[in-house]
Specification:
Elements lengths: L1 H30 L9 H10 L8 H17 L6 H15 L3 E2 L12 H7 L1 E2 L1 H14 L3 E5 L7 E5 L2 E6 L5 E3 L1 H12 L12 E2 L1 H18 L3 H14 L4 H13 L3 H12 L9 H15 L1
Parallel strand pairs: 1-2
Antiparallel strand pairs: 3-4, 3-7, 4-5, 5-6
Helix pairs in contact: 1-2, 2-8, 3-4, 3-6, 8-9, 9-10, 10-11, 10-12, 11-12
Length: 294
C-alpha cells in the first residue's frame, strides 16, 4: 500500500508539473498577442526561465524584481543628470546586488536563464540587460536595449543627453571609440560601426535575443530536439516572425519529420502574418520539402 501511494504521489507531481508547464506556455502565448510596449520584459524572461526549472515557484523571483525596482526608485529619487542616474543604477545593480558578467563560464546555459542569473548574480549581457531595463523602467527612465551585435548594450537618456552602457562590465559607459573597439574585438579588425548598431530594439527583440543564445548553443551541441523546444517559446512570444518558423521547419526536417515541417510552413503561410515579408524564402523551403516526400 505504501508503494501504491508513493507511485500515485509521483503521478500527481508529474501531473502538476505538466499543468504548470502548460500554464506557462499559455502565458507566453498571451505575451505573443500584446503590443511590444505592453510586454513586461523581465517577467516574461522569468516565464521562459521557469520552463527549464519545473516545479520552481515564480513568486520568489518576482519579489526580487519588485525589491530591485524599489531599491532603484529610492536610489534615483534625487538624481537628475544621465551620469547621476547611471551611477545610481550601477550602485544598486552591480554594487548592492553584485550582478556581473560571467567571464569564467560564459557559455554556461544558466547565464541565459533569469532565475539562475538572480540566484548566481551573474549572466550574459542580454540577461543582465533585462534586469537593467527592468530597474530603469521602475523609476520611469528613458532606457532601451540596442541592436549592437554579439554584445548586448543599453542606452539611457536624461535631460537631452544619452549614454550607452555595458551592463556586462558593471555599468561602464562607452564612448564611440569604445564601441568601435568592442565591435572589432568580436567581429574582426575590418568591421566598422554602422547606424543600425545604435538602433533601439523592442521588448520582443530583447527576449528573442535571450532565447537565441540558448538555441544556438543547443544546436551547436547537436541537441536538435532541445533546439525545437526553444524555438517553440520564441514563436509563442513572436508568432509573426517568419524567420522563426523557417528555422523550426528546418530543424524538424533535420530530425526526419518532413511532414511536420511542411505542415508548420503551410500553417504559417496560410495566416495573415506571412504577408509581412520573407514569404518567398518560406515558400522556397516549402517547395524543397515537398519535393522530398513526393
Amino acid at each position: 500500500m505504501i508503494q501504491t501511494r508513493r507511485r500515485g504521489g509521483e503521478r500527481s507531481k508529474e501531473t502538476l508539473k505538466v499543468s504548470e508547464r502548460e500554464g506557462v506556455l499559455e502565458a507566453l502565448r498571451e505575451v505573443g498577442t500584446r503590443k511590444d510596449q505592453d510586454i513586461d520584459v523581465a517577467d516574461t524572461a522569468l516565464l521562459l526561465a521557469s520552463l527549464d526549472r519545473p516545479g520552481e515557484p515564480l513568486e520568489p523571483y518576482r519579489r526580487q524584481l519588485a525589491d530591485l525596482g524599489s531599491e532603484v526608485r529610492a536610489a534615483t529619487a534625487r538624481t537628475h543628470s544621465v551620469d547621476m542616474q547611471v551611477a545610481a543604477l550601477a550602485d544598486v545593480l552591480a554594487g548592492r546586488w553584485s550582478l556581473r558578467g560571467d567571464d569564467e563560464t560564459y557559455d554556461d546555459p544558466r547565464n541565459a536563464n533569469l532565475m539562475h542569473v538572480l540566484d548566481r548574480r551573474r549572466g550574459l549581457p542580454v540577461a543582465l540587460g533585462i534586469l537593467w531595463l527592468h530597474a530603469g523602467r521602475a523609476y520611469g527612465a528613458d532606457i532601451t536595449g540596442l541592436a549592437f551585435p554579439s554584445h548586448f548594450l543599453v542606452r539611457l537618456g536624461a535631460r537631452g543627453q544619452r549614454v550607452i552602457i555595458d551592463v556586462f562590465r558593471g555599468g561602464r559607459t562607452l564612448a564611440a571609440e569604445d564601441l568601435r573597439s568592442l565591435l572589432k574585438e568580436t567581429h574582426g579588425a575590418e568591421k566598422e560601426i554602422e547606424p543600425q548598431h545604435y538602433a533601439a530594439v523592442g521588448n520582443r527583440d530583447v527576449l528573442i535575443r535571450l532565447q537565441n543564445n540558448i538555441k544556438l548553443r543547443t544546436i551547436a551541441a547537436d541537441d536538435l530536439e532541445r533546439g525545437l523546444e526553444v524555438l517553440r517559446t520564441m514563436t509563442l512570444i513572436a508568432p509573426e516572425r517568419g524567420e522563426l518558423w523557417w528555422e523550426t521547419a528546418v530543424l524538424q526536417s533535420r530530425l526526419g519529420n518532413l511532414k511536420t515541417a511542411i505542415a508548420t510552413l503551410e500553417g504559417f503561410l496560410a495566416g495573415p502574418s506571412a504577408a509581412d515579408g520573407g514569404r518567398g524564402e518560406l515558400e522556397e523551403l516549402l517547395r524543397r520539402l515537398r519535393s522530398k516526400v513526393n
